[in-house]
Design brief:
Elements (H helix, E strand, L loop, with lengths): L13 H4 L2 H21 L2 H18 L7 H22 L7 H4 L4 H36 L12 H4 L1 H24 L6 H4 L6 H11 L1
Helix pairs in contact: 2-4, 2-8, 3-4, 4-8, 6-8
Length: about 210
């Protein structure tokens, strides 16, 4: 981290303004999470199809397949686990909007920076525990206790991967927040969706009405 704060020849902090390598790395992280988020969104359609097939078989045959509901659960696990980085890039996580939503972008950035250590602790625990869970599941080739004996280790192995992606996107988000405090623009393709001034948006909407 100290290396990121070394001044450039212009005297500007590298962590704030960045260089070509750091900017490209941030873009790669954001695009990777968006790419994953785009493809796992189709998991919802697969889950819907599986549950629909389960209902149809239940009423037509009188007995559902032994694998549809469990497979839907495993796919939902993949969807939930890998979606964190994408949601962070798109600012899709839930906030207390009655308070946070009224802040200016700079104040939102300040709140995000102050609370970032809590985020880091959470992701650190997730990575630590997730690695243990994944290692044990892979070593045992863990399967469920159902009749189908569905493999659980592929889904569990994604937990530390998702934690790393979330942490990397969190670092990019922290960088964006620091830049916002400095009054610098943030390219959404690099830093994700920027914070919006909800009060100005509400005033604009009120003026149009």
């Amino acid at each position: 981290m100290a290396a990121l704060c070394l001044p450039l020849r212009t005297g500007r902090p590298l962590f704030v303004y960045g260089g070509p390598v750091l900017l490209q790395l941030a873009r790669l992280i954001t695009r990777t999470n968006r790419f994953i988020g785009y493809w796992i969104s189709f998991c919802v359609l697969i889950i819907f199809a599986l549950l629909l097939a389960d209902v149809v078989m239940r009423y037509l045959i009188g007995q559902p397949a032994i694998w549809t509901a469990e497979l839907a659960t495993l796919i939902f696990g993949v969807y939930a686990i890998l979606g964190g980085g994408f949601l962070l890039a798109e600012r899709g996580h839930v906030n207390v909007d009655i308070i946070y939503g009224q802040f200016s972008p700079k104040r939102k950035a300040l709140v995000d920076i102050v609370t970032w250590p809590l985020f880091a602790v959470f992701v650190g625990v997730l990575l630590w525990q997730g690695y243990d869970i994944a290692s044990e599941a892979i070593a045992d080739l863990e399967r469920s206790n159902s009749v189908w004996k569905a493999p659980l280790w592929p889904t569990k192995s994604l937990i530390p991967v998702a934690a790393i992606l979330l942490l990397l996107q969190g670092v990019v988000r922290l960088w964006a927040d620091v830049r916002t405090l400095m009054g610098l623009p943030n390219d959404p393709d690099i830093f994700g969706v920027p914070a919006k001034d909800e009060s100005e948006a509400d005033q604009a909407a009120g003026g149009k009405s």
